[in-house]
Amino acid sequence: MEKKKIFVVEDESIVSLEIQSRLKSLGYAISGAAASGDEAIRKVIDLKPDLILMDIRIKGEIDGIETAAEIKKIYDIPIIFLTAYADPVTIQRAKIADPFGYIIKPFEERELNISIEIALYKDHTQKLIREKDKWLSAILRSVGDAVIATDTLGKIKFINQVAERLTGYTKEEAINKELCSIFKIRSEATKEYVTNPVQKVMQTGDIVGLANHTELISKDGSVYPIADSGSPIRNENGNITGVVVVFQDLSYYKKTEELINIQTTALNSAYNGIVITDFAGKIVYVNDSMFRITGYTRDELMLSLIHISEPTRPY
Fold first, then answer.
1. How many other β-carbons are positioned within 10 Å of the β-carbon of residue 113?
2. Which of 74, 86, 240, 299 is found 20 to 30 A from 40 (Cα to Cα)?
3. pLDDT tens, residue by residue, 75-100
């Protein structure tokens, strides 16, 4: 197995060499060392170590805490503070760099080894989680349906591009907002607003679908007929940690349905009898005038037309 590379930031050369010697005895490789913040930033960019041991009081215009914060802006490298300072003010400041450990000098090799291994494991786990989140987010952004995910309080934690378009709210506007303030839905018939689906899912723990003829009111006042469902998000223990709402814009289907109704009405209003078949000769439509002209009922006429119709054959 390849040795993990550790970078040491310590302004006292004797102390730095001692730390490096201890690291080597523990089975780690030394990728480099620096005595100041500027030098550390410059070298880390080139060397890309697996972990950094950072003293807080170092040479230069910026201390170890500021150096760690700058490095984290460039590379996602775990940092452990290795320092003789443990006063409340310093510890509170150190939090801004989000360190993976804080070891007080003097220290035992075992303590150093444990802190490094925990930091490396935590860093590896976090990177796997972030990679998985990116993968899932890419899938959810690619699906054709609108998707919004919330926590148990109904605050939005994820919204894909389709949902952004339909609601009229960008991701930046929607994240951490209450679902009911972004996902405004009402009954098409009564125009009364519908109960937040998150509440229903949290109460029942089941998948909840909205009633038919539900409308979504977007940010600019546009109205979209939708079909949707809310499903619980559960962790590995089966506990509900949030709700995902998936919905579709039915505008196209509504327009198609209206067009079909208009065409059907027009055909039924025609004075002449009309029979429509498919390419195989199967009857798919007969208008009302055919019943008036022939005097047959629908069943009688359909049966007689079936007998006389012949499927077309390719030559």
1. 16
2. 86
3. 889 999 988 887 888 888 888 888 99
